[in-house]
Amino acid sequence: MRVGVIAHIGFAGLPALVRELVAQAPTLGLELSYESDLLPMAGPGAPLLREPRALDAIIAFGGDGTLLRAARLLDGAAAPVFGVNTGKLGFLTTCGADDFAAALPRLARGEFIAEPRMALEAQAYDASIPVGPRLRALNDVVLHKGGFARVLRLDLSVSGERLGLIAADGIVISTPTGSTAYSLSAGGPIVDPSHESIVVTPVAAHALAIRPFVLLPDAVVDVQPDAAPEEVLVTVDGQVGTKLGRQQRLVVRRSTQPVNIVRVDQTTFFSRLRAKMGWGGLAERDK
Fold first, then answer.
1. Does residue 261 sit in helix, strand or coil?
2. DSSP-assigned letter for residue 271
3. May I ask the CATH architecture of the domain 120-254?
4. In this predicted model, what pLDDT tens digit does every residue of 59-116 receive, in sequence order?
5. Which candidate among 2, 142, 166, 275 keeps its CA 20 to 30 Å from the CA of 199?
6. Mean pLDDT for all residues in the chain
7. Which has the closest alpha carbon to 34: 21, 50, 20, 54?
8. DSSP one-letter code for 71
C-alpha cells in the first residue's frame, strides 16, 4: 500500500507518531513517502511525497485543517484520508494521537470504511471564458470583501435562474461537511454529511428576508459582485484562494469526485457532533 504522510509541524508529539509509523510500516506492507518537512523525522533515505494522486491512502497528522489540505493534495483521487487528530477539535479526523498505533493496522488490512464526502469545484469566469485556477473544496467556497468596511452587492443565480441582488459582507457556499464550519458560524443549518446538497449562507446580510438555503447537489451557483469597490476575494476551505476581478463572476458546482475519509470505529456524525461541538451540551452538563 502506497501511503503519503503530511502533518501540521507544530505538534510536540509529532516525532513520536512518525517513529511509530516508521516502525510499523515494514510489517504492515506500507510504502511510505513524506512531505518535505517530515523527512528529518522519518530518517535517512525517507522518500519525498511527489505524486499524491498515485497514492492508495494518505495519513494526515494534525487537525481538520491538515485533513482539508490532504484532500486538496489528492485533487479528486480516490485515496482515502486517514486523519490523526493532534489539534483541538478534529471533527473530521479518524482517530486521536493516542489511538493511532492501534488504528494503523486496520488501515493496512483494509478494515475500515471509506466515507465519501461531497466536494465542490469553483471557477472564475470573465464573460464565458474561465480565468484563474480551478478551485476544489471539501468544506466551503467563500466570496468576501477582505479588509473593506463596505457591504458587497452580489447578484445571485442558481442553475440559470436569477434569484436577485443581495447585500451582505459575503457569501458561503458549502458542502454538507462544511455546514458545521464557517456556514454554521454565519447562521447556516447543520446538514448530515451523508445527504448531498449545497448550502448557501449569506454573511451578515443587510435584509431580514435574506436567509440561508439548501440546494440540490446538482445545482450550479453563480455569484457576480455588483459594483464592488475593488477585487473581491475567494477563499477555499479557509486556506487558499484567489481574487475575482471586476466584471468577473464565480461559478460553484458539485465536484464529480468525492473525498473519502477513513472511519475505523462505530462513531456516528451525531456522536461526533455531541462530543466535539457540544450539541446538547447544556443538558449533559446539568446532569
1. strand
2. H
3. Sandwich (2.60)
4. 999 999 999 999 999 999 999 999 999 977 788 999 999 999 999 999 999 999 999 9
5. 275
6. 92
7. 50
8. H
Catalytic residue selected from 37, 56, 64, 218: 64
Chain centroid to Cα 254, Å, comes to 13
In angstroms, what CA-CA distances link 46 with 14, 22, 200, 251?
A: 16, 10, 44, 41
* Interatomic CA distance for residues 217 and 273, integer angstroms: 23
The superfamily in CATH containing domain 2-117+258-285 is Probable inorganic polyphosphate/atp-NAD kinase; domain 1 (3.40.50.10330)
Q: Would you say how long the chain is, in residues?
A: 287
Give the three-state DSSP class for 93: coil
The answer to whether 56 and 40 are in contact (CB under 8 A) is no
Residues spanned by CATH 2.60.200.30 within the chain?
Answer: 120-254
Look-up: residue for cell 446538547? 280
Distance, C-alpha 59 to centroid of its chain: 15
By C-alpha distance, which of 48, 58, 71 is closest to 2?
A: 58
In the residue annotation, 64 being an active-site residue is answered as: yes
Exposure pattern of 152-163 as b/e (b: 16+ CB <10 Å)?
bebebbbeeeee
Evaluate whether 242 touches 215 at the Cβ level (below 8 Å).
Answer: no
Residues of the chain with CATH 3.40.50.10330: 2-117+258-285
Q: What residue spans of 7-98 are helical by DSSP H?
A: 14-28, 39-42, 64-74
Inform me whether the pLDDT recorded for 285 exceeds 50. no
DSSP letter at 48 equals B
